[in-house]
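FORM 7B: Structural annotation worksheet

SECTION A. Query
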Amino acid sequence: MLAAFWAYNGSMATTDDILRAGAALAAGGAVVFPTDTVYGVGVAVGPAKTPAELFRIKRRDEGKPVAWLVAGPEALDTYGCNVPDWARKAAEEHWPGALTLIVQASEAVPAAFASAEGTIGLRMPASETALALIRAAGVPLATTSANISGQPAVSLDARLDPELLEQAAAVVRGEDCTGGKGQASTVIDCTGTEPVVLRQGSINVTK
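SECTION B. Predicted structure
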């Protein structure tokens, strides 16, 4: 495992922070970083062949789908198929932001990352740090909340679990995830004819 590094500058991550975290992602490692909702831990899809490292770090049972953070709405066409127009409209209106859209996975989604039903959750975060990491990796980041399974997600870096941080290949910290007021994203199932809210967050979506 790569040695963890710590970026603490009180605000935005620096270019060097992003480059070092990008190198960790390129090596298949898991990185802890702030998003617009809560702190996340993610791996780069491709360099990481499966989300197994995330399950290990979180001590979470394997099999639960892990959503992807993506660079923009075009990801719906790349990684989704049969995406309804109302889901595209929701992305145009609320991305970047705290909205996760679950769509049928395209062939571009490795089987290890898709759900048992063949779906994938996609979200463009309203976080410059998270978007910079996606750009540095050049691929989506399979990301879940940075907490041990069963513990609450955190939006303040001071509350990150030291045990989890020790397991990460790299850590970018120093920001408070205030954009979503510490609230996880709204999750919408877009695989049917109507939007189905699986988790209500700060964003409301209607067809």
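SECTION C. Observations
The chain has six helices and eleven strands. Residues 35 and 127 are 5 Å apart (CA to CA).

SECTION D. Sign-off
Analyst initials: ____
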